[in-house]
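Example for tutorial group B:
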């Protein structure tokens, strides 16, 4: 019956054939689009299953695209060396890859990796690090261990020579920061912040001695006025030829605080031991903040020669040694 109708109506045959061709074309377009989208998605988002998160990859100056691709592949950052080369050529206009330290915080595909390296987009987000006042260089090292290129031993070697000059502050470092870069940034910040204060030194004041005193004050007190009073006491003891006898040096020397010290510890042989040797220690014991440096420069005068921090958390002063011993009995029980 249907064949009879087609014979009777040639126009219907043409319409049927045209409909079939259009339907096939549309299906082909849809299928091709899905395939292309799948390929594009894979190129843009697919990365190796064993990708190492938060990885820092360095491209040395003069490195070829091939060398870079193989390095990325070895580190499980890149899924296809061949496609990387193709897209770098497309994105870089034959310039190849640009030298730099590239930070990968998550999995990404071939296309964005090629784009970043061809355009020099390192992708390093600054990391905020806050260094409290009164920390020694030994204590500081732990704050930078999150950086992949930070070497604690190298930091100690460099920072030990800069003790007192590593300014406590909040810093922004890239994940590729090295020990040397950290020390340089902190020392530069020190001179930027402390330079104007140093220019206000009174006649006869020695900046290195001021800094050593400030490092002690940083450990002995928190309030500026208290630091000024203790500064006056300690400078007076130096003038009188009395040993400073401050416990603040012992965390730096032997890692012990006031309440853990023994009589044997007080006799520990170190040039930093202010019980055993008169005058200031040979160098800073911490990295002080601005208040401590100002207090060292501007001591307040008082009648006292002794002080201690009691178990009650308060400062107790004494004029004579006998009064100081009494304060020990009362407040260090």
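The residue assignment follows.
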């Amino acid at each position: 019956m249907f064949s009879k109708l087609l014979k009777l109506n040639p126009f219907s045959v043409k319409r049927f054939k045209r409909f079939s061709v259009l339907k096939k074309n549309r299906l082909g377009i849809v299928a091709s689009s899905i395939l292309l989208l799948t390929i594009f998605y894979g190129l843009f988002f697919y990365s190796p299953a064993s990708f190492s998160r938060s990885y820092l990859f360095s491209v040395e100056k003069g490195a070829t695209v091939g060398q870079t691709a193989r390095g990325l592949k070895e580190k499980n950052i890149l899924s296809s060396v061949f496609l990387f080369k193709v897209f770098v050529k497309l994105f870089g206009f034959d310039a190849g890859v640009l030298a730099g330290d590239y930070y990968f915080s998550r999995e990404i595909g071939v296309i964005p990796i090629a784009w970043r390296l061809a355009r020099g987009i390192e992708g390093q987000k600054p990391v905020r690090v806050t260094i409290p006042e009164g920390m020694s260089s030994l204590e500081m090292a732990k704050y930078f261990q999150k950086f992949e290129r930070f070497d604690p031993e190298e930091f100690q070697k460099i920072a030990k020579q800069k003790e007192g000059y590593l300014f406590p502050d909040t810093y922004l470092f890239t994940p590729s920061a090295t020990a040397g870069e950290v020390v340089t940034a902190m020392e530069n910040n020190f001179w930027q912040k402390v330079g104007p204060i140093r220019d206000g030194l009174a006649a006869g004041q020695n900046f290195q001695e001021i800094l050593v005193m400030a490092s002690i004050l940083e450990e002995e007190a928190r309030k500026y006025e208290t630091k000024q009073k203790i500064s006056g006491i300690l400078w007076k003891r130096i003038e009188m030829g009395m040993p400073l006898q401050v416990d603040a040096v012992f965390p730096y020397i032997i890692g012990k605080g006031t309440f853990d010290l023994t009589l044997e510890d007080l006799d520990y042989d170190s040039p930093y031991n202010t019980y055993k040797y008169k005058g200031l220690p040979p160098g800073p014991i911490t990295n002080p903040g601005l208040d401590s440096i100002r207090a060292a420069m501007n001591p307040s005068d008082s009648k006292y020669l002794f002080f201690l921090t009691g178990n009650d958390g308060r400062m107790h002063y004494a004029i004579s040694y006998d009064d100081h011993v009494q304060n020990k009995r009362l407040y260090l029980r």
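The beta strands are 55-59, 100-104, 127-130, 170-173, 306-309, 315-318. Compare this with the pattern of hydrophobic and polar residues in the output above.
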